[in-house]
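Lecture 7 notes: from sequence to structure.
We start with the chain below.
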Amino acid sequence: MDKLSQRIQNLMGSAPDHISRLSGGCVGDVFKVCLGNGQNLVAKVSNTGSINCVSPLEGGLRIEGQMLIYLRQNTQLPIPHVHFVDNHLLLMDFLPNDGGLGVCEQTHAAELVAHLHTISTDKGFGFANNTVIGGLDQPNPWTTSWIDFFTNQRLLYMGQNALKAHKLPPKVWDRLQKLCQNLERWLVEPAKPALVHGDLWGGNVLSAKRRISGFIDPAIYFADAEVELAFTTLFNTFGEAFFKRYHEIRPIRPGFFEQRRDLYNLYPLLVHVRLFGETYVRDLESALRKFGF
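Predicted structure tokens for the same chain:
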């Protein structure tokens, strides 16, 4: 902690008065830093012995910082300003968070996310570089077909990752592979790629004074926007107020809630299987059974 304090003082020109641990941090351990000049920061520190992840990805902090900078420079999302980032330390502004996602906050979130999803690219689906989700590598090779990208770079990639880590039973892996051979029965190619935050669970959405104050811990890439909408339902991040306002701005095609949502949520379920194991294997099996596998 003394080394962290000294490094922050060297970078910011003001010594920390107080450093306290915050929750979260699959890429690194997280701290609130109160500087002597009154400024409040969040410091993420790379640590291979992180209390939240067994083996965080090398360079994950640098990638996280780059994603935050990209979103702050290219979108209207409220994103913390990054003061410094390298492979070992990420320093960014501390954003206020009252912890509530009521109707007003969800309506505001819908407007922000809908605008985010208008940002596109002519390069295809993916991103300029690999990103991270939950401290895990997230490959993003540019791909012209969304179904091919989602199949190979999301479901099969993360499934194989979980299999190699002995978190996904071989029989469930076989069932996943069979479903992947049939995705075109339910999915269609979207009109164009959409930029997604990629990890919109409640802990990554901050609010204050009945407005969204920040989005943090992104896992960005260009995708079918529905993959983002699906993720927000997996852990009940948003509800009716969000989807009502989002649909007014960007109409959601029929069949999303009935089928495609559960297909797209296979990916975050696989991420959680890789990170946490057995509990999420049961959820994954339930989703596979819904589609006959």
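Points to note: The longest strand covers residues 29-35. The CA atoms of residues 114 and 255 lie 19 Å apart.
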